[in-house]
Structures are given as structure tokens and as C-alpha cells.
Amino acid sequence: MKFEAITIKDIAKALGLSISTVSKALHGSHEISNETKAQVLAYAKQYKYKPNPIAQSLKRGRSKSIGVIVCNIDNNFFSQAINGIESVARQKDYNVIITQSRESYDREVANSEHLSSRSVDGLIISLSAETSNVDHLVRLHQKGLPIAFFDRVTDAIATHQVIADNYKGAYEATRHLLQQGFRRIAHITSSPSLSITTERLHGYRQALEDAGMQPDQRYIKLCEHGGMIQEETRQALMQLLEMPDRPDAIFTASDRLSTTTLSLLRQMRIDIPGQIALVGFTNSISADIFNPSLTAVVQPALEMGQQITELLIQLIESKRPVTTFQKRILDTELKIRDSSLHLPRL
Amino acid sequence: MKFEAITIKDIAKALGLSISTVSKALHGSHEISNETKAQVLAYAKQYKYKPNPIAQSLKRGRSKSIGVIVCNIDNNFFSQAINGIESVARQKDYNVIITQSRESYDREVANSEHLSSRSVDGLIISLSAETSNVDHLVRLHQKGLPIAFFDRVTDAIATHQVIADNYKGAYEATRHLLQQGFRRIAHITSSPSLSITTERLHGYRQALEDAGMQPDQRYIKLCEHGGMIQEETRQALMQLLEMPDRPDAIFTASDRLSTTTLSLLRQMRIDIPGQIALVGFTNSISADIFNPSLTAVVQPALEMGQQITELLIQLIESKRPVTTFQKRILDTELKIRDSSLHLPRL
DNA sequence: GTGTTTGGCGCAATCGTTTTCGTAAAAAAA
DNA sequence: TTTTTTTACGAAAACGATTGCGCCAAACAC
Fold first, then answer.
1. Chain A residues in contact with B82 (beta carbon < 8 A)
2. Domain range enclosing B95
3. Residue A16 is part of a domain; what is its CATH number?
4. Do A58 and B63 touch (CB under 8 A)?
5. Is A55 in Cβ contact with B58 (below 8 Å)?
6. How many domains does chain B have?
7. Are A335 and A304 in contact (CB under 8 A)?
């Protein structure tokens, strides 16, 4: 079964013209008389001629498609970002091919190679939690493939980046907990190799220090798999809960960590925020119907997707090699809800 | 900036062979001596030769990619389904191009035409809420483009379908509410043109009738935009709440309607399930941390995505025209949580 | 009337691959 | 030795579109 479309050759035959004449007519070349142009255009319109993009890609050496690698699409942050990517790409007539690394280094490598061999014109990437080495991307980049990073970025490749203000987001979240009167504030975060981890960790630490407190390493839990493995998150949480001076608040550093932590605490029948308060990075559209509603650091995911796509397309379409790169840092928003309220002591 | 890869021609030149010999060697043709094959293969491996998929597509007339049109990806049902689609597609070496209709008929038409002109080999579709006419798809199908439907299907095109057992899911949800002692059970659902709407409505009605009750049209609210427009859902809900014999339970028919309804009820400070119980179709991974945790009809989204992709690829790769089609109906699961508990009257 | 310009179009190469067909040399059969 | 078969390879067309170049005829200049 296959899909037969009308080609330039069909038009040429039907009108008794040569293939090149038709092609030029369709492109409005001055070499072709208005008469012939009109004739060709009319015929093309009538039979709904659409140039075969595959043939065009082959000829032009560009496929008008961009590849995207994120860890996961069933996560509101990334699905919103993808909405942004798609909207800009479509508007500029690029196709988007989405792939998921599921936080696995191996899948990220496989996807990047697969996409580049599928001749995407460029790549948009948010690194996987397992990725600490970006040689696979360096290779592609050196061969001339435009790459742009968002969210989880690396400085090992000189290119555009779009991130949220992770430092400030984390700082504000932590300061908010401090202002609410919490003192033993734990932080559950992802793999230390991720840019977002270090930035958020930094914001968290700085807020504590600015409040005259000494960040305590025991209160910081790293989850290498970024919440993809629930057991890992559970253990991190258990370690916190079993401490003699157990935290009175937790700041979680990602969407999945936030929902997983909330879910686990509820399963353990731990009252939030009564026994432990919770603030998390999350773009979940349901954060206000969680139990309790979840105080969240919200990233401008849609805008991030839009901007990184614009930057990538600039890179792709640039005639001359680009040598100066942008690092855009977009503002986050702290949405205060019930999970971080300091209840009066009973 | 462009990405230069090694071609078959480069290999030919380097080894002093002809292009066709190299091609045949790479394909293991019997026409080529083992010696030459080994030489070519070694060279190809060393220089990481990858056939240019665009050239292959042009030659073969197939692009090894499939298009997907869903209303939305930031919705756990669809993102899970896409996970299923991707996993099967990737395993069979197909690319997946995902697009969103956002419940708009116009965008669905535009996307389907764009995808077909981008020479996808086939299309997987879940219809938009606004779509009542599928002529745009009929046209493509008649031209020979393989199409397969999941979730929101149509019988206007003879092809494979994969759906959840919407009738049974709705029946069980309604029966559950009845068993809990609720009597005035309302139903908020999507556009009546959608298959899922009629099937779920049917299950809802039948459950009431089997309990000796007469379905009351006033308790059934249709949202043409399937929850994409919050105001529409709000009005439907308000109409229910303002009825003299206001419902004591609501059964919502889709992911977005469920979360929106829950959110609205909470904003109005209506106690769930005390004043109104709630059961919804949803695949939200956070349903158990909602407030209250949400009793849900869960669809096997991943499996649905996998199965429809297998069926589509069968269609694409079939040598002879396929004349018998499958309609697979997968089981749903009712997850009972707090939102539907009948509390003792105070 | 000869020479030059220009308008309008077609030829053919090209992108990278696949595939049919032809052919030279080597091997086998006569 | 001659004929046939086999082996191993190359030439070329094709997929659909783009584009530089060449060509013919009409229009113009002189």
C-alpha cells in the first residue's frame, strides 16, 4: 500500500512543458513567461500539487526537521516545553521529532545518533540524569550538527542555552520555608552531574547561609535517577525521616521528585505541612488539587521551549559560523499553596 | 552550517570500486565477492558510514516515519499512549512525528495534510473534540495513506481501531457510585460527536437503567471542547450545582474534565465526596495525591499505543491491500479511592 | 542586412541510494 | 580448443526537485 502524489513531472507531461520549466514556474522565476506561470500554477492548484519534501531535502541537504531529546514527555514541564518547541517549529515550517531518554545515558546516546543519522537539521536537548559525559554530543557538534540545550545544559559545548533561573527559584523556595518558620529544611534533588542540580543546590544553600544557617550535608539527598526509580526516592526520604533531628520541611528539586515525595509522605500518613512542609519544583497543572495543594516553583516551560527553538533555528539557518552564543535565563515563579504553610503549634 | 556525512560514493572512491558495488556489498549481495564485501564493510565501519535515510526514502518511496495526531500531549493518557507508540515504532525502526490538534478541527485538518505532505508512511489518530466530519481523512485514506485510529475513533473509514472498553468502564464507574448509595449521578462529558462520548454515555445510562433508574437528561452535560476551555466546563458544572435536586455525584468522562471539575469544586469549597462524589476517567499518575484522591477509570494507554502502532505498521508493510480490519477493545480498570466514598450522613 | 541583446524555455547534472542490466574475465563443460 | 556457465563487477536509470547553462527565436541596434 502506498501513497501516490502528483509530481512536478506529471505537471510537465500534462502541460507539454519540461520539468525545469515547471519547477521554475512554481518558484516564480523571471525566466518564465507570465502566461506559462499562470498555467502551471493553475494546474498545480487544481491537482493540489505539493512538492515532495523528501526530494527537496535530498537536493537541499536539509530536512527541515529538528530532533528533541528529553527525559520524559509524561511530565508537565517537558510536555509544556514541547508545546513551545512545536509551536515555533511549525510556524517556521520545521518538523519536530521527539524522543525520550527516560533518564538513561544509553538511550540518550542511541537517540542522538539515531536522530542525526535521520538527518535532522538540529538537536534540542535536555540532558538525562545519568549523563555526565557528553562526548557523544561533542562528536556530533564537531561534525557540524547544530545543537541547543535547555533546562539541563552543559558548558562542554559552546552553543545556545535556555534555562530557568534555577538559582533564584531555589533561593526563593528555601527563603519562603525559612520565613514560614521552618528550620530543618532538607533538599531532595537529582543527579549531581546535572546543571539544574548544582544551580538549585546553590540557591538552597545560599538562602540558608543568608539566614545565618549552616547548610547541613545530611539534609541533602541526591537521586541519581531523578525520580524515575521510585525506590531510590523512597530510600532518600526514609533516610531523612529516620534522622534524630528529622527535617521539618523538604524542598524537592524536580517534577517527578515532588510528586513522588508527596505521594510517599501521604502513604506514610505523615501530615503535610503539619509534620513536614513541602515545596517543589513542578509544572504540574494539578498542583492546586493535590493534597495538600503543593507550593511550587514553576518554570516558564512553554517560553523556554519557544526560545530554545528560535535559537536553534537561527543556528541552523545562519549562513556564517556562529561564534557568540546566548545563555538565556528565564524567571521562575513561586506559587505558594498549602503544603508550605506553617501551622500554629498545637 | 551543515552536517557532512560520509556517503557511499566516498567509499567507492576510496576503495576504487563503483558505487553500485559498494551498495551491493553493504547489502550483502551474493554478486559481490567475500573479499570485496569484507573490505567495504571494514571501511564503512571505520568511517561510521550510515546510509542517508532521505535518499533511501526517495528511492524506496517510503519514509519510515509515522505521523501521530492527538489533541494534547500534556495529558497523561496521551503521553502514555505516545510512549507506547514510540516504543513499538522505534523497535521497528520508524520515526514518530507527533502533532497536537488541541481539540481544534482546523488544526487537525492542517496537521493531517502537513503530515501526509511530509510523506509519513502512515497516520495514527485520536480525533479532536471538534471533529464531526472526517472527509479530510477519507481523502487521504482514499489516496492510499494508511490510517489507524485509537481512543477517539470513527467508523467512516474502514481501518484498524484500538479503544478502551469505554462502555464497561463507564458502566462500572456508575455502578460503583450507585453501590455507594449515590442516586442523583450526573455525567459531564465531551463532544457528542466523539466515539468515546457515546460509548461512555451508553455505559452510564445502562448502569442506571440496570439499577431500575431512569437516566435524566438534565444530569448530562456536554462540553464541546472537551475541557480545553475551562469556562465551558465551569458553566456545565454550575448548571448542575444550581439544579433544585442537585446531583450527589458526578462522573466525568475525560482526563481534563476530571481534573478541571475537581479543581472547580475545590475552589467552590464543595466537599468531596461529602457534598458531591466524583469519579472520572483519568490516567493521571497523580490521582492518588489529589485532594481527595480521585476514584478513576484508568485506560491501558501504553498498550493502546503499542497495539495501534503494530496494526498501523502491519498496514504499511502489507504487500496486498488489507480488507479485514481489527477493532481491539482493551479492558479498563476502576481504581477506587476517596472521592467516591459514601460517607455516613451526619 | 548583419550583429547583438533578451526573453523563454529545455537539457543535463546533482543530491545519495537502489536496482536492473550488461559485460569482461575466469571457471567449467564440451 | 571452443563453447557455455559462473563470478564479480560497473554503467546507467530511477526516485523528485533544483539550477546553471545553452539554445533558439524574436526584437533591437547599427
1. 73
2. 63-163+301-331
3. 1.10.260
4. no
5. yes
6. 3
7. no
